[in-house]
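Subject: for your reference before the review

Hello V.,

The reviewers asked for a structural picture of the protein, and I figured it would be easier to keep everything in one thread rather than splitting it across files. Below is the amino acid sequence we used in the manuscript, unchanged from the supplementary table.
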Amino acid sequence: MDEHCPLTCEEMVELVTNYLEGTLPAADHLRFESHIAECQGCHHYLDQMRKTIDLTGRIADDTLVSVVRDTFLRLFRDWRKT
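And here is what came back from the structure prediction:
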């Protein structure tokens, strides 16, 4: 990625996981933060991702009905294939 070009919304979505995990290179990290400071939609998306991670991290495996757990796992595996 060109560190001097503004980040697009599409690029932001592709980089959000790396941003949240703290693995973006410094130049991309700055572009990411610059973009979310200017783009309300992407700022909102980032907040949603943080909340989703927080809430799903609270789900204990033993509290899920096996059919629900299996459905979640299948959906995630299928999503990762695309």
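For the response letter, the relevant points are probably these. The chain is about 70% helix and 0% strand. The chain has a mean pLDDT of 86.

Happy to draft the paragraph if you're swamped.

O.
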